[in-house]
Amino acid sequence: MKYTLTFSQLDHFACKMAALVKAGDIILLNGDLGTGKTTWSKCFGKCLGVTQTIKSPTFNILSEYYSGRLPLFHFDVYRLNEPEDFFEIGLEHFQAQSGIMLIEWGNIIEPILELPYITLLLEHLDETHRMVSIEFTHFPQERKEEIEKCMF
Ligand SMILES: Nc1ncnc2c1ncn2[C@@H]1O[C@H](COP(=O)(O)OP(=O)(O)O)[C@@H](O)[C@H]1O
Ligand SMILES: [Mg+2]
Description:
single chain, alpha/beta, Rossmann fold, binds magnesium ion
């Protein structure tokens, strides 16, 4: 499904989604540079209850936050050379901690991901709007509907 959202609608969507996520959820955040992946992550984290300022993890690949309702593992995998390198940063370790994995440039690791995940794609429309698509892979039907409703 594809929707056109204003920036404030996008922020609202991130916040509502933060209320619905459950331990172990994986969200891939895709889209070109400047489409709003990091901004979306900041809103999502804030509404999850993270008290620290969320910064783009571009240079360290991962930032971990434990002050929210659930642990938040915020990745930016743009600099991984091979999708398999993602396993080396310890996929199992993070799952064991039952947090939320929010992965900017998640399309890079998508080929190796066998678990259920949500994909958000942000596309530039104009100065104040973005196209947002949401897809679910191996995801329970009833949660799909609940999460999709967050966009409104
Ligand atoms: N939700 C938003 N509210 C306001 N501005 C936004 C929003 N999303 C993106 N932008 C604008 O786009 C710029 C780039 O966003 P950013 O989140 O850094 O993109 P990405 O992480 O995809 O490269 C921001 O500096 C801001 O000007
Ligand atoms: Mg970014």
